[in-house]
Amino acid sequence: MAVDRQMIARTVQELRAALPEDGDLLAGLLRVAEATRTVLEVDGAGLTLIHADGPPRWVAATDAAMELLAQVQHDFGEGPYLQAYAQDRAVVVQDLGAAPIWVRLAAVVGQLRVLAVLSVPIRLAAQPVGTLDVYSSQPRAWTTHELEGAGEFAAVASELVNNGVALAHQQLEVAQLRQALTSRIWIEQAKGVLGATQGVSPEEAFQLLRARARSSSRKLAEVAQEVVQGAQRQRLGALALDDARVREAEGRARAAEQALEAAQADLAQRRALLDQAQVAAEERDHIADERNHAADDRDRIADERERAADERDRVADERDRTAGHPD
Fold first, then answer.
1. Planar angle of CA 62, 146, 106, nearest 5 degrees
2. What is the pTM of this model?
3. Segment 184-188 mean pLDDT
Protein backbone atom coordinates (compact mmCIF):
# COMPACT_ATOMS: atom_id res chain seq x y z
CA MET A 1 0.00 0.00 0.00
CA ALA A 2 1.57 3.29 -1.11
CA VAL A 3 1.81 6.09 1.43
CA ASP A 4 1.62 9.78 0.63
CA ARG A 5 5.05 11.15 1.50
CA GLN A 6 3.89 14.74 1.14
CA MET A 7 1.01 14.15 3.53
CA ILE A 8 3.40 12.61 6.06
CA ALA A 9 5.69 15.64 5.86
CA ARG A 10 2.77 18.08 6.12
CA THR A 11 1.20 16.25 9.07
CA VAL A 12 4.51 15.98 10.92
CA GLN A 13 5.09 19.70 10.39
CA GLU A 14 1.64 20.50 11.78
CA LEU A 15 2.20 18.30 14.83
CA ARG A 16 5.57 19.91 15.50
CA ALA A 17 4.08 23.38 15.17
CA ALA A 18 1.62 22.52 17.95
CA LEU A 19 4.27 21.22 20.34
CA PRO A 20 5.27 24.49 22.05
CA GLU A 21 1.69 25.41 22.95
CA ASP A 22 0.57 21.95 23.95
CA GLY A 23 0.46 21.51 27.70
CA ASP A 24 -1.38 18.16 27.78
CA LEU A 25 1.09 15.35 27.17
CA LEU A 26 -1.43 12.54 26.76
CA ALA A 27 -3.66 14.58 24.46
CA GLY A 28 -0.61 15.33 22.31
CA LEU A 29 0.40 11.67 22.21
CA LEU A 30 -3.11 10.69 21.20
CA ARG A 31 -2.99 13.25 18.37
CA VAL A 32 0.22 11.64 17.17
CA ALA A 33 -1.44 8.20 17.29
CA GLU A 34 -4.52 9.43 15.41
CA ALA A 35 -2.36 11.16 12.78
CA THR A 36 -0.31 7.99 12.33
CA ARG A 37 -3.45 5.90 11.87
CA THR A 38 -4.90 8.31 9.32
CA VAL A 39 -1.80 9.01 7.24
CA LEU A 40 -0.47 5.42 7.15
CA GLU A 41 -4.03 4.15 6.51
CA VAL A 42 -3.95 1.54 9.26
CA ASP A 43 -6.78 0.30 11.48
CA GLY A 44 -5.29 1.40 14.78
CA ALA A 45 -2.26 3.06 16.36
CA GLY A 46 -0.88 3.60 19.84
CA LEU A 47 2.16 4.58 21.88
CA THR A 48 3.93 2.96 24.82
CA LEU A 49 6.38 4.60 27.23
CA ILE A 50 8.69 3.28 29.92
CA HIS A 51 7.56 3.02 33.51
CA ALA A 52 9.54 2.75 36.70
CA ASP A 53 8.09 -0.68 37.52
CA GLY A 54 9.22 -2.35 34.32
CA PRO A 55 9.09 -2.23 30.52
CA PRO A 56 6.95 0.18 28.48
CA ARG A 57 3.19 0.01 28.61
CA TRP A 58 0.54 1.72 26.53
CA VAL A 59 -0.26 5.37 27.23
CA ALA A 60 -2.30 6.33 24.15
CA ALA A 61 -4.37 4.28 21.70
CA THR A 62 -6.85 5.05 18.95
CA ASP A 63 -9.16 2.12 19.71
CA ALA A 64 -9.89 -0.72 22.12
CA ALA A 65 -8.19 -3.32 19.92
CA MET A 66 -4.95 -1.32 20.07
CA GLU A 67 -5.23 -1.11 23.85
CA LEU A 68 -5.75 -4.87 24.08
CA LEU A 69 -2.84 -5.57 21.72
CA ALA A 70 -0.47 -3.55 23.93
CA GLN A 71 -1.89 -4.79 27.24
CA VAL A 72 -1.65 -8.46 26.25
CA GLN A 73 1.97 -8.01 25.19
CA HIS A 74 2.73 -6.38 28.56
CA ASP A 75 0.95 -9.20 30.43
CA PHE A 76 2.67 -11.96 28.43
CA GLY A 77 6.05 -10.21 28.52
CA GLU A 78 6.50 -10.71 24.79
CA GLY A 79 5.42 -9.22 21.49
CA PRO A 80 6.47 -6.85 18.70
CA TYR A 81 6.50 -3.63 20.73
CA LEU A 82 8.54 -5.19 23.56
CA GLN A 83 11.01 -6.54 21.01
CA ALA A 84 11.23 -3.16 19.25
CA TYR A 85 11.95 -1.49 22.60
CA ALA A 86 14.43 -4.10 23.85
CA GLN A 87 16.38 -4.29 20.58
CA ASP A 88 15.95 -0.59 19.67
CA ARG A 89 14.83 -1.36 16.14
CA ALA A 90 11.68 -1.56 14.05
CA VAL A 91 9.78 -4.84 14.21
CA VAL A 92 7.43 -5.78 11.39
CA VAL A 93 4.90 -8.61 11.44
CA GLN A 94 3.02 -9.32 8.23
CA ASP A 95 0.56 -11.75 9.87
CA LEU A 96 0.48 -12.57 13.58
CA GLY A 97 -1.44 -15.75 12.85
CA ALA A 98 1.49 -17.00 10.77
CA ALA A 99 4.16 -16.05 13.34
CA PRO A 100 4.73 -19.10 15.60
CA ILE A 101 6.81 -17.14 18.12
CA TRP A 102 3.75 -15.08 19.10
CA VAL A 103 1.06 -17.72 18.84
CA ARG A 104 -0.36 -16.81 22.27
CA LEU A 105 -0.65 -13.17 21.28
CA ALA A 106 -2.36 -14.08 17.99
CA ALA A 107 -4.84 -16.31 19.84
CA VAL A 108 -6.02 -13.39 22.00
CA VAL A 109 -6.12 -10.50 19.52
CA GLY A 110 -7.02 -12.55 16.43
CA GLN A 111 -10.69 -12.45 17.44
CA LEU A 112 -10.52 -8.66 16.99
CA ARG A 113 -8.94 -9.04 13.53
CA VAL A 114 -5.53 -7.75 14.64
CA LEU A 115 -3.17 -9.34 12.13
CA ALA A 116 -0.36 -7.18 10.72
CA VAL A 117 1.71 -5.21 13.28
CA LEU A 118 4.45 -2.60 12.99
CA SER A 119 6.39 -1.26 16.00
CA VAL A 120 9.15 1.37 15.95
CA PRO A 121 11.11 2.70 18.95
CA ILE A 122 10.67 6.15 20.45
CA ARG A 123 14.06 7.51 21.56
CA LEU A 124 15.31 10.15 23.94
CA ALA A 125 18.98 10.82 24.64
CA ALA A 126 19.76 8.11 22.05
CA GLN A 127 17.96 5.59 24.26
CA PRO A 128 14.64 3.81 23.56
CA VAL A 129 11.93 5.01 25.94
CA GLY A 130 8.88 3.50 24.28
CA THR A 131 7.34 2.56 20.94
CA LEU A 132 4.92 3.74 18.30
CA ASP A 133 2.75 0.82 17.18
CA VAL A 134 0.20 0.29 14.42
CA TYR A 135 -1.90 -2.65 13.32
CA SER A 136 -3.95 -3.73 10.32
CA SER A 137 -6.96 -6.04 10.26
CA GLN A 138 -5.57 -7.75 7.16
CA PRO A 139 -2.16 -9.35 6.50
CA ARG A 140 0.14 -6.62 5.22
CA ALA A 141 3.66 -6.47 3.81
CA TRP A 142 4.96 -3.26 5.38
CA THR A 143 6.91 -1.10 2.92
CA THR A 144 10.07 0.92 3.45
CA HIS A 145 8.06 4.14 3.06
CA GLU A 146 5.62 3.01 5.76
CA LEU A 147 8.53 2.20 8.07
CA GLU A 148 10.05 5.61 7.44
CA GLY A 149 6.71 7.34 7.97
CA ALA A 150 6.19 5.56 11.30
CA GLY A 151 9.71 6.59 12.29
CA GLU A 152 8.92 10.24 11.58
CA PHE A 153 5.81 10.13 13.76
CA ALA A 154 7.83 8.39 16.47
CA ALA A 155 10.28 11.29 16.33
CA VAL A 156 7.42 13.73 16.91
CA ALA A 157 6.34 11.65 19.90
CA SER A 158 9.90 11.86 21.23
CA GLU A 159 9.82 15.67 21.01
CA LEU A 160 6.41 15.75 22.67
CA VAL A 161 7.58 13.57 25.56
CA ASN A 162 10.72 15.65 25.88
CA ASN A 163 8.62 18.82 26.23
CA GLY A 164 6.11 17.11 28.48
CA VAL A 165 8.64 16.15 31.14
CA ALA A 166 10.51 19.46 30.71
CA LEU A 167 13.91 17.93 30.00
CA ALA A 168 16.60 20.56 29.62
CA HIS A 169 18.44 18.47 27.02
CA GLN A 170 18.70 14.92 25.76
CA GLN A 171 21.87 14.09 27.69
CA LEU A 172 20.16 13.38 31.00
CA GLU A 173 20.66 9.98 32.48
CA VAL A 174 18.02 7.44 31.44
CA ALA A 175 17.33 6.67 35.10
CA GLN A 176 16.32 10.29 35.70
CA LEU A 177 14.16 10.21 32.59
CA ARG A 178 12.40 7.08 33.78
CA GLN A 179 11.45 8.61 37.11
CA ALA A 180 10.19 11.90 35.70
CA LEU A 181 8.40 10.28 32.79
CA THR A 182 6.74 7.60 34.91
CA SER A 183 5.28 10.02 37.42
CA ARG A 184 3.99 12.41 34.76
CA ILE A 185 2.42 9.65 32.65
CA TRP A 186 0.63 7.99 35.56
CA ILE A 187 -0.71 11.31 36.80
CA GLU A 188 -1.89 12.43 33.34
CA GLN A 189 -3.54 9.08 32.69
CA ALA A 190 -5.24 9.12 36.08
CA LYS A 191 -6.56 12.65 35.43
CA GLY A 192 -8.07 11.39 32.18
CA VAL A 193 -9.64 8.38 33.91
CA LEU A 194 -11.21 10.51 36.64
CA GLY A 195 -12.41 13.04 34.07
CA ALA A 196 -14.13 10.30 32.08
CA THR A 197 -15.63 8.43 35.04
CA GLN A 198 -16.51 11.30 37.39
CA GLY A 199 -17.05 14.15 34.95
CA VAL A 200 -14.49 16.48 36.56
CA SER A 201 -12.04 18.90 34.96
CA PRO A 202 -8.29 18.07 34.74
CA GLU A 203 -7.57 20.45 37.64
CA GLU A 204 -10.33 18.92 39.77
CA ALA A 205 -9.05 15.44 38.94
CA PHE A 206 -5.54 16.46 40.02
CA GLN A 207 -6.89 17.78 43.34
CA LEU A 208 -8.76 14.52 43.90
CA LEU A 209 -5.53 12.58 43.35
CA ARG A 210 -3.62 14.84 45.73
CA ALA A 211 -6.29 14.45 48.41
CA ARG A 212 -6.26 10.67 48.06
CA ALA A 213 -2.47 10.57 48.24
CA ARG A 214 -2.38 12.74 51.37
CA SER A 215 -5.10 10.77 53.14
CA SER A 216 -3.26 7.50 52.53
CA SER A 217 0.26 8.93 53.02
CA ARG A 218 1.37 7.73 49.61
CA LYS A 219 3.07 9.31 46.64
CA LEU A 220 0.89 11.01 44.08
CA ALA A 221 2.26 8.83 41.24
CA GLU A 222 1.49 5.68 43.23
CA VAL A 223 -2.14 6.69 43.70
CA ALA A 224 -2.38 7.67 40.03
CA GLN A 225 -1.00 4.28 38.98
CA GLU A 226 -3.62 2.55 41.13
CA VAL A 227 -6.41 4.54 39.46
CA VAL A 228 -5.17 3.83 35.94
CA GLN A 229 -4.60 0.12 36.48
CA GLY A 230 -8.03 -0.24 38.03
CA ALA A 231 -9.56 1.40 34.96
CA GLN A 232 -7.53 -0.86 32.66
CA ARG A 233 -8.77 -3.98 34.45
CA GLN A 234 -12.36 -2.77 34.12
CA ARG A 235 -11.83 -2.01 30.41
CA LEU A 236 -10.36 -5.44 29.70
CA GLY A 237 -13.17 -7.05 31.68
CA ALA A 238 -15.70 -5.16 29.58
CA LEU A 239 -13.94 -6.27 26.40
CA ALA A 240 -14.04 -9.89 27.55
CA LEU A 241 -17.76 -9.56 28.38
CA ASP A 242 -18.47 -7.97 25.00
CA ASP A 243 -16.56 -10.76 23.29
CA ALA A 244 -18.58 -13.38 25.17
CA ARG A 245 -21.79 -11.65 24.11
CA VAL A 246 -20.60 -11.54 20.51
CA ARG A 247 -19.81 -15.27 20.58
CA GLU A 248 -23.22 -15.98 22.12
CA ALA A 249 -24.95 -13.89 19.45
CA GLU A 250 -22.95 -15.63 16.73
CA GLY A 251 -24.00 -18.99 18.20
CA ARG A 252 -27.65 -17.97 18.10
CA ALA A 253 -27.23 -16.74 14.54
CA ARG A 254 -25.65 -20.05 13.50
CA ALA A 255 -28.47 -22.00 15.19
CA ALA A 256 -31.08 -19.85 13.45
CA GLU A 257 -29.30 -20.30 10.14
CA GLN A 258 -29.19 -24.07 10.61
CA ALA A 259 -32.89 -24.12 11.53
CA LEU A 260 -33.67 -22.07 8.42
CA GLU A 261 -31.62 -24.42 6.26
CA ALA A 262 -33.45 -27.43 7.77
CA ALA A 263 -36.83 -25.79 7.16
CA GLN A 264 -35.85 -24.96 3.59
CA ALA A 265 -34.70 -28.56 3.04
CA ASP A 266 -37.98 -29.89 4.49
CA LEU A 267 -39.95 -27.49 2.29
CA ALA A 268 -38.00 -28.59 -0.77
CA GLN A 269 -38.69 -32.25 0.09
CA ARG A 270 -42.39 -31.54 0.55
CA ARG A 271 -42.47 -29.71 -2.78
CA ALA A 272 -40.76 -32.66 -4.46
CA LEU A 273 -43.31 -35.10 -2.99
CA LEU A 274 -46.13 -32.80 -4.05
CA ASP A 275 -44.73 -32.61 -7.57
CA GLN A 276 -44.45 -36.39 -7.69
CA ALA A 277 -48.04 -36.77 -6.47
CA GLN A 278 -49.23 -34.28 -9.08
CA VAL A 279 -47.39 -36.13 -11.83
CA ALA A 280 -48.91 -39.43 -10.67
CA ALA A 281 -52.39 -37.89 -10.61
CA GLU A 282 -51.93 -36.50 -14.11
CA GLU A 283 -50.75 -39.92 -15.27
CA ARG A 284 -53.83 -41.56 -13.77
CA ASP A 285 -56.06 -38.97 -15.42
CA HIS A 286 -54.32 -39.63 -18.73
CA ILE A 287 -54.83 -43.38 -18.40
CA ALA A 288 -58.50 -42.83 -17.48
CA ASP A 289 -58.92 -40.56 -20.51
CA GLU A 290 -57.43 -43.22 -22.77
CA ARG A 291 -59.75 -45.84 -21.29
CA ASN A 292 -62.71 -43.56 -21.89
CA HIS A 293 -61.59 -43.00 -25.47
CA ALA A 294 -61.27 -46.77 -25.94
CA ALA A 295 -64.76 -47.33 -24.50
CA ASP A 296 -66.15 -44.64 -26.78
CA ASP A 297 -64.46 -46.31 -29.74
CA ARG A 298 -65.98 -49.67 -28.78
CA ASP A 299 -69.44 -48.14 -28.41
CA ARG A 300 -69.07 -46.43 -31.78
CA ILE A 301 -68.03 -49.69 -33.47
CA ALA A 302 -70.95 -51.51 -31.81
CA ASP A 303 -73.35 -48.84 -33.05
CA GLU A 304 -71.94 -49.12 -36.55
CA ARG A 305 -72.37 -52.91 -36.44
CA GLU A 306 -75.95 -52.55 -35.29
CA ARG A 307 -76.64 -50.07 -38.08
CA ALA A 308 -75.03 -52.47 -40.58
CA ALA A 309 -77.16 -55.35 -39.24
CA ASP A 310 -80.28 -53.21 -39.45
CA GLU A 311 -79.36 -52.29 -43.02
CA ARG A 312 -78.89 -55.98 -43.92
CA ASP A 313 -82.23 -56.85 -42.35
CA ARG A 314 -83.91 -54.02 -44.25
CA VAL A 315 -82.38 -55.19 -47.54
CA ALA A 316 -83.43 -58.79 -46.85
CA ASP A 317 -86.98 -57.69 -46.07
CA GLU A 318 -87.05 -55.69 -49.28
CA ARG A 319 -85.93 -58.76 -51.26
CA ASP A 320 -88.56 -60.86 -49.59
CA ARG A 321 -91.31 -58.37 -50.44
CA THR A 322 -90.10 -58.18 -53.99
CA ALA A 323 -90.01 -61.94 -54.31
CA GLY A 324 -93.59 -62.36 -52.87
CA HIS A 325 -95.19 -59.83 -55.27
CA PRO A 326 -93.92 -60.41 -58.79
CA ASP A 327 -95.19 -58.11 -61.48
1. 55
2. 0.55
3. 83
